[in-house]
């Protein structure tokens, strides 16, 4: 799976998108942060639904934060 987090700067209106690839496993690396995310996400049932919430991305990711790809381009969701 994949999760996308879209961040918007209030002053400049610029966007940053963080995409995390997910793998489901039985290994006990559970995170209460993902439970909170799943609870919030389950309430978004329509295409244009939005929410604001506070999540700790470090706890969500639980992995090396030094390995990533960065590129400039269009958004992954409308308006593209």
Q: Can you tag this structure with a few keywords?
A:
2 strands, alpha+beta, 2 helices, 80 residues, 18% strand, two-stranded antiparallel sheet
Global shape: globular
Main sheet: strands, sense, barrel: 2 strands, antiparallel
In which order are the strands of the major sheet placed? 1-2
Question: Helices and strands, in N-to-C order?
Answer: EEHH
pLDDT averaged residue by residue: 78
- Structural class by SSE content: alpha+beta
Helix count, per DSSP?
2
What's the total count of β strands? Answer: 2
Structure write-up:
This protein has 80 residues and is α+β, with helices and mostly antiparallel strands. 19% of the residues lie in helices and 18% in strands. The protein has helices spanning 32-41, 57-61, and strands at residues 2-8, 15-21. Strand 1 (2-8) and strand 2 (15-21) form a beta hairpin. It is globular. Its EC number is 4.2.1.1. InterPro entries: CA_dom, CA_dom_sf, Carbonic_anhydrase_a-class.
